[in-house]
Amino acid sequence: MLKEFRCGNCKRLLARTGGFTELQIKCSRCGTLNHVKATSLEQSPMSAIRPIQRPELKSAK
Length: 61
Description:
Layout (H helix, E strand, L loop, with lengths): L2 E4 L6 E5 L4 E5 L6 E5 L24
Antiparallel strand pairs: 1-2, 3-4
């Protein structure tokens, strides 16, 4: 689902985004620099994969 990102000054539609961690964009109408950071990050499919557990090697004495 895309979310609308509008200028904080003149409310012009600047972008429709599906996901981001940080966005900075200048409004072409009024010149305001708009900056937004994500409030939370969704877990990516790669981070859901557990690392491979390797058996510990016993040293020969």
